[in-house]
Amino acid sequence: LEVIASVEPRIAEATRAELADQRSSLKLIASENYASPATLLTMGTWLSDKYAEGTVGHRFYAGCQNIDTVESVAAEHARELFGAEYAYVQPHSGIDANLVAFWAILAHRVELPELAELGLKNINEMTEAQWETLRHKFGNQRALGMSLDAGGHLTHGFRPNISGKMFHQRSYGTDPQTQRIDYDAVRAAAREFKPLILIAGYSAYPRRVNFAKMREIADEVGATFMVDMAHFAGLVAGKVFTGDEDPVPHAHLVTTTTHKSLRGPRGGMVLATEEYAPSVDRGCPMVLGGPLGNVMAAKAVALAEARTPAFQTYAQAVADNAQTLAGGLLSRGAQLVTGGTDNHLVLIDVSSFGLTGRQAESALLDAGIVTNRNAVPADPNGAWYTSGVRIGTPALTTRGFGAAEFDRVAELIVDVLESTSPATTAAGTPGKAKYVLADGVAERTKAASAEM
Ligand code: PLP
C-alpha cells in the first residue's frame, strides 16, 4: 500500500478502509465472499499487461505463450472440477459470460444454419442483403427466463438490460402459494412461447432447481437449455448439488461468476457441451476484447482450490449454515420466502416487521450487518424499495462461522429489525426510505459481532 500511496494516497486509503470495513462488519451479501490470499495475489501481477485477443494457440497478438498456459490451466481445472466437456474462462464478469452464451447460441442456432443454406463459410462472405436478413433473424429470437421478482437475474431478459432488448422475452415466476418454481407452469409457458433459449438460474431464489426437469422441457420445445449458476457454482463445485440439481450434465451451456460462492477472483466463465464449444470459443471477437491474463490466472488458482476436499467441506458448511440461519430467523418470528432455504441464501420478507427492504437494509448496515434489499415475489414495493432482504452464508462461512455463530447472527438480525421503525414524514405518514433504529441497538449489535 505504501507504493500505491506514493502515487495516489486516496486509493491506498480506500483500500485500507475497505479491509477495515470487511473485517469489522458481518458480511452477509449472498453474492460476496473472501477470496484466498493466493487468489488475490495472483490478480496483482504483470500478466495484466499482456494483450491476448483470440483463444489458446490462435491469438491476434505475438508473444502470448504464457497467457496460453494460464488460460489452458484455468480451463482444464474448470472442465475437471465441473465435469464439463468445454470451458471458456475469458469473460470478465457474469454479465459478460451470459452475453457470450447468448451470442454463442445465436451463432450456433441462427448463423450457422443460415451460412450452410447459402453455402458460405463466414458472415464476411455475405452480400449486404443476406447480412440484413440474418441481422433481422438475430433480432427476432425468443428467450424464456425466471422473472426478476421471483429471483431471476436482470440478464435473463429484464427489459432495462441488453438481454431484454436482444430477445423477445417472457418470464416464468413461482407458484403464488409455495413461492417455488412450478415446473408444469414453466412447461406450459415454454409450449406456448416456444423459446430458442430456456434460461434457469437465479440471484435470489432460496431453493434448489431440478435441472433434469428443465432440460426435459427445453427438449420438448426445441430450446437450447442454458443455466446461469453464478450464485451457486460453489455448491456445484463442492458436490452439494449433485444429480438433477447439478446443471452441468443437463444444460447445453452453463454460465457462472467466479467470485461468489465459488470464492475466486471477480470474473465469469462459460461451460458448454462439445456441440456448442466452437461457438463459445468465439467469445472474442463476438462480445469480448482482450482477456485479463491476471484474472484468468487467479481463476486457475481458485479453481485448483475448489478441487480440494477442504472446499467440499466448505460448500457443505455454506448449505448447513443457511439452514441454521433460516431456522434461527423462523423461530424468532421472521417470515422467509418459500418458508426456508436449501441453498446458500435466505430471503426475509421484512414487511411483517412493518419495514420496506430499503429501511431494513439501512438499519442493519447501521448495526454493522451488511445485506442487500431484494424484491420478494409480486413485491408491492417494487424493485427499488422492495419488501425483502437477501442474506447469504458464503462469506461468513469462509471466516469460519458455524451453527452457533449463525444462530447468533439470526438473533442479531431479528433484534435489529424489531428495533427499527419507519420514520414519519412531514405529512405524518411513514416514509419508505427513512427509518429510526432504537437507541443503543447499533452499538449492542456491533459489540456482539466483534466477539464472533
Ligand atoms: N448472473 C447472476 C445469476 C447473478 O446473480 C449475477 C450477479 O449478481 C450476474 C449474473 C452478473 O455478474 P457480474 O456482476 O459479475 O456481471
From TrEMBL:
Q: Name one GO cellular component term.
A: cytosol
Serine hydroxymethyltransferase-like domain sequence ranges: 6-108, 141-413
> Which residues does the UniProt site feature Plays an important role in substrate specificity point to?
H259
**Which keywords does the record carry?**
Amino-acid biosynthesis, Cytoplasm, Methyltransferase, One-carbon metabolism, Pyridoxal phosphate, Transferase
Identify the enzyme class: transferase
Residues in a coiled coil are none
Name of the featured protein? Serine hydroxymethyltransferase
Organism annotation: Microlunatus flavus
Q: Which gene encodes it?
A: glyA
